[in-house]
Structures are given as structure tokens and as C-alpha cells.
TrEMBL record:
Enzyme Commission no: 2.5.1.141
MF annotations from Gene Ontology: protoheme IX farnesyltransferase activity
Protein name: Protoheme IX farnesyltransferase
Membership in a protein family: Belongs to the UbiA prenyltransferase family. Protoheme IX farnesyltransferase subfamily.
Transmembrane segments: 27-47, 53-73, 94-117, 123-141, 148-167, 173-195, 216-238, 244-264, 276-298
Biological or metabolic pathway of the protein: Porphyrin-containing compound metabolism; heme O biosynthesis; heme O from protoheme: step 1/1
Keywords tagged on the record: Cell inner membrane, Cell membrane, Heme biosynthesis, Membrane, Transferase, Transmembrane, Transmembrane helix
Length: 301
């Protein structure tokens, strides 16, 4: 490291790129997509842009704020793990104060937009997602129990409900079904990565499942969750919320996810865990796109 670089790090020279990075933009993009699908599925009609735009921005801002808090709280462990050591707050390019001010601004603007331009129910539910992820999961569960991500996953699963309530101002069972889909998807999504990064988590004493219960047990759990996800994936069709197009898409995607999990359990090579993790992201994105296509191409009368 050059001396210029080390001096600039000490005075916390954060660029716009660092601010962007601490919002976890790709995670938030997928969260917002699931919220958008929740909005669209809540009504057969079109969504008024006066609701659509503040809802998407408000949910996006509060999720980004939560992601920034995660970077602040995890400064020490992030700086010690290979995957995260170069993060803006962990390296010191950005101070915790800078990140806190940025996060607070995002939270205030996001909450105000939802409260004033969407509805208070959506504002409070989104705030509960922020508290769930940044306080309950990051500050407590992550460090306390190997079931951290199964329970904490509820915060990341909530966006379809937020989209739904933004349009209808009510908590509908179908919206909860979309939440359940993401809730069931989260363990195989994360544990596949955790297997690959097991040594990182062990080094910083974070009790992720592969560290506490071993890789073989975690692989079994991943396989079982993909079976559960297959069953949960049938529900939108079975309750009459979605049509055959969704059913075909969900069955295909969930079978592929199961095949990855099977390979991971019984025939893994060194790339299988990361391949499974990467596929999980494509899987969720396509699943929600299929929900959307099904909703608009094959409307339920
Ligand atoms: C408690 C629940 C969850 C945990 C513990 C978790 C964990 C992780 C971790 C550790 C990464 C790697 C991040 C990195 O290396 O930068 C990741 C990536 C990702 N996650 Fe999750 N995740 C969760 C829920 C979700 C949810 C609900 C979504 C979206 C609906 C999501 C979408 C993504 C995406 C898109 C990436 C790729 C990010 C990138 O390439 O920059 N995750 N997740
Ligand atoms: C308002 C609302 C819906 C908030 C939810 C916000 C949100 C960003 C959820 C994503 C979950 C996630 C990426 C967890 C990983 O955290 P980690 O600390 O285990 O992963 P890391 O080591 O990569 O930081």
C-alpha cells in the first residue's frame, strides 16, 4: 500500500462508489423487484404511478439504509473476513459517522415518502423490515444462533407484502404466501455461500450452520429446504392466485434448485456450493418474473 493511500484512508476519503456499495445495491434491486411483484399481484388493474414511484423509492431507501447499518455494525468482522475485508467502512475509507449520517438520511426520506405518499401501514411495516435486518438479525441473531438466517430471513422476505400493502392498505393472505416463498428460499440461498465461506465465519466466531453443525449437516438442510420450497412454490397455483404459466415456471425452477442441492449433497466438487448460491439468485429473480408474466398474460377472472 502506498503512503498516499494509507493517509487518505485515515482521513476517510469516501467516494460516491463507497456510498453506493454500502447500500448492497444488487440485493436491494432484487428486494425491490419482489416488492414490485407484490404491488402488481395485489390488483388486476394498473398501479397508479403516484403510488408506484414513492413505494419503490421508499422501500428501496429503507432497505439501503438497513444495508448501510449492517456495514457499520459489522465493521470489525467484515474487516477480518476475506469476502468482506475491502468494504468501505471495514477498510476505513468511510467512517462509521459518515455511514450513519447517510443511513439516517435514507431512512428518514424513505419513511417520510412511504408515510406521506403511500400509507402509514406500509411505512411501519417497512421500518419493521429495517429494524428486523439491522437490529434483530445483524446485532443479535447473527452472533447468537446458527438459526440466525432462518429467523432473520423474515426481514428480507417482507418486500412483497410491502408492495401489496402499498396498493391495497391491507395484509392479504396471498401477500403472506409470497413472503413465505422468499422465507423458504433464504436458507438454501445463504447456507450454500456459508459452506464456501465456512472458514471466514469460523475465524470471526460467527455461528453459521456449517461452522456449528458441519458441512454435511448443512447440505442435508439445504436439500430439505429445496423440497419444502418445491411444495411452497405450488401454493400460489393451488390457492388460485396464479395460473399454469407460473406453475410450469415454479416447478421447473424448483426442480433445478433441487438438482443443485442434490449435487451439493451427493456429488459436489469445489465449485458446487458457489454454483448453488449463484443459481439461487437467478432462481428467485426468475420466479418473481414468472409470477408477473403469469399475472398479466393469463389474468384470473
Ligand atoms: C437473512 C437473509 C439473507 C442472508 C443471510 C443473505 C446473505 C447473503 C450474502 C452473505 C451474500 C453475499 C454478499 C456479498 O458477497 O457481497 C448475498 C448475496 C445476495 N443476496 Fe442474499 N441473503 C439474505 C436474503 C436475501 C434476500 C431476501 C434477497 C433478495 C430478495 C437476497 C439477494 C441477494 C443477492 C441479489 C445477492 C448478490 C449480491 C451481489 O452480487 O452483490 N438475499 N446474500
Ligand atoms: C426494509 C427491508 C426490507 C430491509 C431488509 C434489508 C436487506 C438489505 C436484507 C438483505 C439480507 C442480507 C443481504 C443479509 C446478509 O447479511 P449478512 O450480514 O449476513 O451478510 P454480509 O456478510 O454480506 O454483510
Amino acid at each position: 500500500m502506498s503512503s498516499v493511500q494509507s493517509i487518505s484512508e485515515k482521513v476517510h476519503v469516501a467516494s460516491w462508489r463507497d456510498y453506493y456499495e454500502i447500500t448492497k445495491p444488487r440485493v436491494v434491486a432484487l428486494l425491490v423487484l419482489t416488492a414490485l411483484v407484490g404491488m402488481c399481484l395485489s390488483t388486476p388493474g394498473a398501479i397508479a404511478w403516484q403510488v408506484l414511484i414513492p413505494a419503490i423509492l421508499g422501500i428501496g431507501f429503507l432497505s439501503s439504509s438497513a444495508a448501510a447499518i449492517n456495514h457499520i455494525v459489522d465493521e470489525r468482522i467484515d474487516s477480518e473476513m476475506a469476502r468482506t475485508h475491502n468494504r468501505p467502512v471495514a477498510t476505513g475509507r468511510m467512517s462509521a459517522l459518515q455511514a450513519s449520517v447517510f443511513s439516517a438520511l435514507l431512512a428518514i426520506v424513505g419513511f417520510a415518502m412511504l408515510y406521506a405518499l403511500v400509507n402509514p401501514l406500509t411505512a411501519y411495516l417497512t421500518l419493521s423490515g429495517l429494524v428486523g435486518y439491522s437490529c434483530v438479525y445483524t446485532m443479535y441473531l447473527k452472533r447468537a444462533t446458527p438459526q440466525n438466517i432462518t429467523i432473520g430471513g423474515l426481514a428480507g422476505a417482507i418486500p412483497p407484502l410491502l408492495g401489496w400493502t402499498a396498493v391495497t392498505n391491507e395484509i392479504h393472505p396471498n401477500a403472506l404466501l409470497l413472503v413465505l416463498l422468499i422465507f423458504t428460499w433464504t436458507p438454501p440461498h445463504f447456507w450454500a455461500l456459508a459452506i464456501h465461506r465456512k472458514d471466514d465465519y469460523a475465524k470471526v466466531n460467527i455461528p453459521m450452520l456449517p461452522v456449528t453443525h458441519g458441512v454435511a449437516f448443512t447440505k442435508t438442510q439445504i436439500l430439505l429446504y429445496t423440497i419444502l420450497l418445491f411444495v411452497v412454490g405450488l401454493l400460489p397455483y393451488l390457492v388460485g392466485m396464479s395460473n399454469w404459466l407460473y406453475l410450469v415456471g415454479a416447478v421447473a425452477l424448483n426442480l433445478i434448485f433441487f438438482a443443485y442441492a442434490w449435487k451439493l449433497k451427493f456429488n459436489a466438487d469445489e465449485t458446487t456450493a458457489m454454483d448453488t448460491f449463484k443459481f439461487s439468485i437467478v432462481h428467485l429473480m426468475l420466479l418473481f418474473i414468472v409470477l408477473l408474466l403469469d399475472h398479466y398474460l393469463l389474468p384470473i377472472s
